[in-house]
Amino acid sequence: MKRFDYEKHRQEQLQPNRQTEKQGFHIPSESESLLSSTEGTFENRFRRKRTTDCSVVLVTLAFAGVECTWSIVIAKATPLFREMGVTDMFLSMFWLVGPIGGLVVQPIVGVLSDRCENPWGRRRPFIAIGAVFEVIGMFLLIFAGDLGKPFKSFPLQMSSDHPNYVSVFLAFVGFTCLSFAHNAIQGPSRALITDIVETERQLEFGNAMFAFWLGIGQATGYLAGSIDWTDCFFFVQRLESDSCHQTCVNLKVTGLVSMVILLFCLGTSLYFAEEEPQYNVHTLQHSSTPNPLTMAIQFLFHLPSPIQRVCMVIFFSWFGYSMIFIHITDWVGKDIMKGNIWVEDSLYDEGVRAGTIGLFFNSIISVFVSALAPWLVSHLGLRTLWFIGNTALSLLLLSTPFIHEKWVAVCLISFLGVPWAITMTVPYSLACVFTSQYDRAVILGILNVYIVVPFLLCALFDGALMVLFGSVSGALVVGSCISLLGCYYIIKIPVEESGTLLSSTPSLHSFRSRLQDWIPTLANHP
């Protein structure tokens, strides 16, 4: 098969397409482009005004609002569904929405936003639409009990035997909207920074600010979720009813607070992110750029050996993190506090709030560990650091059946921030080391697949595990044991004696050769 010159292909994209001109279309060359100071490619159709570091900070603020809302969902969704009478089996089915959203929504929104020529810009319309659905989803989730109350034909008593099916359905719809909107906002928000920054330094600064605001948003959400609002304001107690107990009331207040934070953060980002669309429909329609979904599928089955090992570590470790997201606050309420969601002794809600406090300190610790990551990598190396983090994750989860004190559980959840920070940095650094610049985006998308699939499997079999072990800690231990398998693949990642990762291997050269063979079939399409 004819080899394809990638750089030559990019240069040819800047010249008029004569074959297209014969068909009645004209694609302007660089000199004819509407942007006289930039290339006529699709990526530069949005004029880049001068972007300051202050603008980058304000644009990335969107992640704080998004993560604040989602952290509340992680901390409170499982307790709320239990209060509504959802059984363990159906609860695991509810959590399937998250991974499905990651597999379906993100790729579709990414492709659509890349091709969007809305007067408001490529990314901002999708962020705004996602914000609307996120608010709708949160509203349905926190007021599901009240909205379902008028339907007298359904039982209203909140118990495992007599759930209000209308309320459960509305809560599920709200949870689905939140999950899909969360995935829809994430991709365009990250891409927006690459659209508006002017230098490589600003791009690195923008990525750093994303990590910073992510930690701040999570900490804010977990802090709001850890507060017993019924003790803070007397009028909050009036929100309690036979269809909304203490857990539901606290979620109402935290949900309303998160919606205010979300709208403020996203509104600020959308206002300061100035996109000016330059229309060039014919270039888009006849572009020879390969389809990203097609390339992702091809890459998935032809990964080089080092990347395969990185993906396998992610795959196994995320069984542990998936169990954490689904059960960690529920574990404190049920196993540690011995709370009963059907009895108003407040022990379960106290445990949930204690678990949320642990998640708050978890976020704080992860921010500090992320800041120390460059120093740790320079002294330990990426592979050793990841091995330590993955081992710590497995051991911490393995210890959950032996913990019986609330403060010990809070400390354990807090220390889980260390492996979490390592997992959020090391795999992506390895992916950048092992791939060339032009195939990096596809590889990062493939890493997301290896995150979503474990979450999907955990959600599918979580109910069966709960029935089998009869406790939440049993499910956490299963996640721990599977996560430990990732250490084997960490050891197999190639390194030099100095600890520096090998960036050039025969499998990588073969991978790039395959890439050059794949592209021409798409690039030469008329």
Automatic annotation (TrEMBL):
Region called Disordered, residue ranges: 1-35
Organism domain of life: Eukaryota
Location within or outside the cell: Membrane
Keyword annotations from UniProtKB, A to Z: Membrane, Transmembrane, Transmembrane helix, Transport
First-listed, main subcellular location of the protein, grouped into a coarse class: membrane
A GO cellular component entry from the record: membrane
UniProt-recorded name of the protein: Sucrose transporter
Membrane-spanning segments: 54-73, 93-113, 125-145, 165-185, 253-273, 307-328, 357-377, 383-400, 407-430, 442-461, 468-491
SUPFAM superfamilies linked to this entry: MFS general substrate transporter
Biased composition range(s): Basic and acidic residues: 1-12
GO MF entries: sucrose:proton symporter activity
Species of the source: Galdieria yellowstonensis
Membrane topology: Multi-pass membrane protein
